[in-house]
Amino acid sequence: MKIYSKSVQAIVRRIIELDMILFGQYKLKSGLISPFYIDLRSIISWPDLFEDICNEYLPLMEQCQFDLICGVPYTALTLSTFLSNRSKIPMIMKRKERKTYGTAKMFEGCYEHGQKVLIIEDVTSSGASILETAIGLRDQGLRVTDALVFIDRDMNAIENLRKHGINVHCVIKFLPLIDYLREEGHLTEAQVRECNSWILKNRSPLPMYLTNQIKLANHFPNTTYSQRAKICKNSFSKKLFQIMESKSSNLCVAADLDNCESILKLAQISGPYIVMLKLHADMINDFDEDFIKQLKAIAEQNNFLLFEDRKFADIGSLVAKQYSQGRFKIVDWAHLVTAHLISGPGMIEALKSEARKSSEPRACVLISHLSSEKNLVPPSYAEEAFSMAMNHNDFVAGFISREKVAFDPSLIHMMPGVKFDSEKGDNFGQRYTTPEMAIETMGADLIIVGRGITSKLNESIEVLNSTLQSYQTRGFEAYQKTI
Questions:
Q1: How do residues 189-204 score in pLDDT, each as one tens digit?
Q2: Percent of the chain's residues with pLDDT above 90
Q3: Which among 212, 242, 328 is positioned nearest to 279, based on CA atoms?
Q4: How far apart are CA 320 and CA 344, in angstroms?
Q5: N or C: which end of the chain has fewer CB within 10 A?
């Protein structure tokens, strides 16, 4: 049974000869071992084959209505360029990562709000790359209803994308392809059965980070702190949301000071206004147990939590000791700590194992963004932070972020670098944001204010109280506008 046109049969023979479809045992990016592997990236090295493949998209294009073409980066960029030139329909180009200079665009080319875009892809499994591109396009005010694919692996992409308003048109579907290859003598019956069985067992759902992006893109209103407290997966988050509700505050003061006397003074004065006090214990010159004893008493008296900005980033065994031992014994007094993702989930497990020994709520927040200019944290870091938080939500309370990372309302977004005069930075690359911009625009739940408050510490008590009250009021009023 010849299910393909002569031109498609010729293409299939070529890509088999050139090992672009392989059969055996191959480890995929997901870690799964697959009995087949498809990689069309090298078609650019075979101009005649490349053109033949592009020509098979043209009849599918005639079935769709669109104003623009956009290829999924990177393999499909060359395909979409060819198709744009052949059809004389304009193309726009999606970047994998946003430019950090110039116009900082995610999409290059000319387009207008409301135009319809046809997405081009070479191979698809779950449809994630197509949907990710569609989300970006829709965020620009463009419409997406169709996508063209050369090979569909028959692993659920068509069904997944249909749920999100995208019809997939493909040249080749994998299950009929392997039957054709068996007829042509390229595969045995056993190989076909193995491929069929593997595909049926490994239908690909959309990745969790992508369904999260879709929910974020819908811009649902926030729920109240008290409602969020009820759904938290860990006791720290529940307690924090309850304090935020009862004190009508989302203010955390960053006590980035180097002596105990100043920190205790700041804690005592700011206590009625704040929900947390953030420290850097390793920069306190006279840190001792008596200081912690006094600080804990002030925190309990004023109903706020203690937050050590340790930024853990080491192997699990060392992090466990850094957290529980040494001069600072952080786990004994800090309700919350910060951690980088770079060491992987083993570090989170290490922190969690030490935290379980405490009778009080303990948690960590993951650093998904930094507030300093020209930092080296890549855009994909936030996606990894989201996945790690969801996998460890019994201990991970949320994120230190510059934008909304997770739709899940049990996770909290804390934004550093908040200051009234946000147009001013410092000489070390710090970027500032107003309370309103942080909460209403950038998705923060809690604002972290440092120098905007600590710079007033040596002024009159009235000035410091007024500053604290202003940050508390403006932050909470901004939150009220989002619910």
A1: 999 999 999 999 998 8
A2: 85
A3: 328
A4: 14
A5: N
Tokens at 293, concatenated: 């004893």
Q: What Å distances lie between residue 369 and 281, 317, 340, 347, CA to CA? A: 22, 25, 10, 19
Summarize the annotated binding site for substrate as residue ranges: 256, 278, 371, 430, 450-451
344 is a domain residue = yes
Mean pLDDT of 426-449: 85
Residues 6+ apart with CB under 8 A from 124: 130, 149, 151, 152, 153, 157, 168, 170
Contact between 453 and 253 (Cβ < 8 Å): yes
Cα–Cα nearest to 150, from 67, 63, 68, 76: 76
Number of domains in the chain: 2
pTM score, two decimals?
0.80
Which DSSP string corresponds to 247-301?
HT--EEEE---SSHHHHHHHHHHHTTT-SEEEE-GGG-TT--HHHHHHHHHHHHH
| Active site members | 309, 311, 314
Q: Is 267:468 a contact under the CB 8 Å cutoff?
A: no
Percent of the chain at pLDDT exceeding 70: 95
Q: Are residues 223 and 198 in the same domain?
A: no
> What is the residue whose two structure tokens read 């069929």?
196
Question: Quick one: 373 and 250 in the same domain?
Answer: yes
**In the block, residue with structure tokens 């020509």:** 55
Binding residues: 256, 278, 371, 430, 450-451
> Does one domain contain both 108 and 232?
no
455 domain-assigned = yes
Q: What 3-state DSSP class applies to 68?
A: strand
| 177 and 308 within one domain | no
Please tell me the distance from the alpha carbon of residue 415 to that of residue 412, in angstroms, as a whole number. Answer: 10
The 10s digit of each residue's pLDDT in 303-358 is 999 999 999 999 999 999 999 999 999 999 999 999 999 999 999 999 999 999 99
> Look-up: residue for tokens 């479809």?
21
Host domain of residue 440? 218-480
- What is the average per-residue pLDDT within 393-400? 97
Distance CA 366, CA 389 (A): 8
CA 403 to chain centre: 9
Quote the pLDDT of residue 422: 59
